[in-house]
Amino acid sequence: MRAVKFTRYGEPDVLGVVEVPRPAAGPGQVVVAVVTAATNPGEIGIREGRFAAIWPAHFPEGQGNDFAGYVTEIGSDVETFAVGDEVLGFAPRAAQAEYVAVSIDAVAAKPAGLSWESAATIAGAGATAWASVAAVNPQPGETIVVSGAAGGVGIYAAQLVRLSGADVIGTCGETNVDLLTSLGIRPAQYGPGLSRQLRDLAPNGIDGYIDTFGSGNVSLAVSLGVEPDRINTLIDQEAVQRFGVHSEAQEQADSPTIWAELAALVARNDITVPIAAVYDFTTEQVRQAYRDVGSRHVSGKRVLRIMPAHRQAGRT
Fold first, then answer.
1. What does the pLDDT look like over 127-138, one tens digit per residue?
2. How far apart are CA 192 and CA 86, in angstroms?
3. Counting C-beta atoms within 10 Å of the first and last residue's C-beta, which end of the chain has fewer, N or C?
4. Distance of CA 120 to the CA centre of its chain
5. Per-residue confidence at 241, pLDDT binned at 50, 70, 90?
6. Among candidates 275, 228, 295, which has minimal Cα distance to 114?
7. What sign results for the dihedral spanned by CA atoms 145, 151, 154, 155?
8. Hey, how many other C-beta atoms are within 10 angstroms of the C-beta on 27?
């Protein structure tokens, strides 16, 4: 089979789609033919070696975490899934491949009404947003700010907050103002005047703050009077130490039960997942996907199409 691998730390040009052995299902595992796999900003840091002290690469290293596909093989002791079942799941540093072997605790059923592209984002960006929102604990009538609200995690988080009954303010660039407004999220544009905008949009104060972007958002939240216990950051570990804010992320929502609930929300259109682009499963397209993700000027998610539509129709 083919899979994304890299043999040294570096820029996107270290990535390649190469031939590797196809996995087999062990006890309690299923093999999934991957239809789509997501891309995530955190994967860039791993590839560049910025997280080598805590998450070192083991070359040749794989890439990608969240995926969607259908079961092609089941191992012994597996009774909850059958060959042909459509699933979504999480396979750390292995998802960008034509096949993955994963524990049944790492997959959830994909609803029929959920697109393959959206399904691939559930166990990564969706779960990260879920944990972030749970950490801030929004209540009906409160005002919650989500930074980077048009990004892959932010778009999930902002809509989950809205579903809780809270008022949502989302920070964004000018190009995403209309998108957030269409989703019932009040936009506040990045820039020198952001603090004043937030004060004007929330004259009675801000109750919670979800930081998906870093760049001083936690300090801004504290300056606006948000209690540290109502702040969650995915980026700013220095602020976690300084202010004692939360840093809940995917690991705190690494549960097929949560993924299934998120998938149902997206399938019912209670949550919209904008797909910024879909890339073919070639070396150059994978590299381009990560150049685009690295620009951070995106709305929604960027997804790799691992299995071409004609192969999917034939289930080969």
1. 999 999 999 999
2. 47
3. C
4. 9
5. very high
6. 275
7. positive
8. 9
The tens digit of pLDDT for each residue in 154-166 reads 999 999 999 999 9
DSSP track, the chain: -EEEEBSSS-SGGG-EEEE-PPP---TTEEEEEEEEEE--HHHHHHHHTTTTTTS---SSB----EEEEEEEEE-TT--S--TT-EEEEE-TTT-SBSEEEEEGGGEEEPPTTS-HHHHTTIIIIIHHHHHHHHHH---TT-EEEETTTTSHHHHHHHHHHHHTT-EEEEEE-GGGHHHHHHTT-EEEE-STTHHHHHHHH-TT---EEEESS-TTHHHHHHHTT--GGGEEESS-HHHHHHH--B---GGGG--HHHHHHHHHHHHTTSS---EEEEEESSHHHHHHHHHHHHH---SSEEEEE-S-HHHHHHT-
| Angstrom distance (rounded) from CA 93 to CA 37 | 11
pTM of the model: 0.96
Between the two ends of the chain, the Cα-to-Cα distance in Å is 12
Q: Is the peptide bond before 60 cis (omega within 30 degrees of 0)?
A: yes
pLDDT at 94: 98
- What are the structure tokens assigned to 208, written together? 């919670």
Q: Map tokens 């604990």 to a residue.
A: 137
Q: What is the pLDDT of residue 298?
A: 73
Query: What token pair was written down for 46?
Result: 């791993």
Question: 30: number of CA atoms within 13 Å, CB side?
Answer: 26
Residues 6+ apart with CB under 8 A from 89: 32, 66, 67, 68, 100, 102, 106, 107, 108, 123, 256, 259
